[in-house]
Amino acid sequence: MSEDDRTRAMRSPGDGRPLPPRPGDGLRAGGAPAHQVPSAPAGGPAGGPGAPTHKLPAASQYPEPGSGAASPGSGPEEPRQGRSRVYGKARSGGSPMKPLRPGREPSDPARPRRRVSGGTILKIVAGFLVVLLVAGVGMFIWINSRINGIEGVLDDYPGRVADTPGTNWLLVGSDSRKGLSAAERKKLRTGQAVGQRTDSMMLLHISDSGDKPTLVSLPRDLAVDIPGRKRDKLNAAYNGGPQLLVKTVETVTGVHVDHYMEIGFAGFVDIVDAIGGVEINVRAAVDDPKAGLKLKKGTQVLTGAQALGYVRTRKGGALPDFERTKRQRQFLGAVVKKAASPGVLINPFTSIPLAMSATDAVAVDGGTGAFSLLSLGLAMGDSPVTTVVPFGGTERLADGGEAIKSDRPKALALFNALKEDKPVPKDVLDTGNN
Description:
Elements: H1 3-10, E1 85-86, E2 89-90, H2 118-146, E3 148-150, E4 167-174, H3 182-188, E5 198-206, E6 214-217, E7 223-225, E8 231-233, H4 234-239, H5 242-253, E9 259-263, H6 265-274, E10 278-282, E11 286-288, E12 293-295, E13 298-302, H7 304-312, H8 320-339, H9 342-345, H10 348-361, E14 362-365, H11 370-380, E15 385-388, E16 391-396, E17 402-406, H12 408-419
Parallel strand pairs: 3-14, 4-9, 6-15
Antiparallel strand pairs: 1-2, 4-5, 5-6, 7-8, 9-14, 10-13, 11-12, 16-17
């Protein structure tokens, strides 16, 4: 046995390596057997010496797929399913392969994207607007149902001032302790006084001509003639009720009051806390143990309790009451401006508590609703011109008390400008109020 024969005998059938050539092997075409199959001698009988051990079937014995030819001994030929191969693997199914689309991988199952039509976008936008409208109407109805009205506060009376141009609000901050527990009164340093008095009074004029609103502080110790009573401090008119206060303000100023609103201590604190505090520029450090207030100088965010102490303290300034009116105007403008900001109104976590606090704390005349309150907020957010009734010393009252005496000529110039819906003369404005 030759070396090559021994090598062939030792090679395992599934080795996969090519067998070494034997002498006499010629060139093989691709797909030929690994070694030549001996052919029968010319003229020799089949199966004789030198005949191949096996015989390959002729190509005609293997029908082409789909030709319908049956194999020997088989039954009726069934239709053969077309087969194809995808990446070397048999593909299931009998449908022919579809050509690939440009830029689409064979394994990508994604379908063509559906474009959103303009009509669909319009429907979505319209639906969103409808939801906002319904929510707004619902909020409006809900707020209106919660507003506390004071009936008769603006009723007509003999000799009342006729309607004047523009819209005028009388804003009153009372020191009523209603709604405060004993612990809250102690914490807020409001005292234990019963009843209520005015802690601040302001007249807001909203012009019809488009000029900036004007906010005028009315000192509670201002000496005035109270209709049906003796000359006294303006605060004494409120002791006779809101109607008498409105009548007194209209008589003194000649300005027709269109809306009335008042707020107490408890509501004051709740409103500030509902909007997350209010930013105030404290002009000078304040240390007032009586008001429970200690603030450093500079811009800072005040809580409800701090804001209450800030507008009530009489510390600071040569004329503490006038300094207090400046702080009250400063604070009122800041809190209303923040309450009307988009960040508060759009956010339900702030707008709903604000609406609840405001409607619980505020009392208005019977003719004032949500739209009127909205106009008030817009006016206060428009950085109104702020001033105070010009004063000219003090005045001794009949009961021996002392009140603030107004500068009559300047006061008349101020009130006449409001009555005629004209800008207030600059020489009348309190230049040190800002």
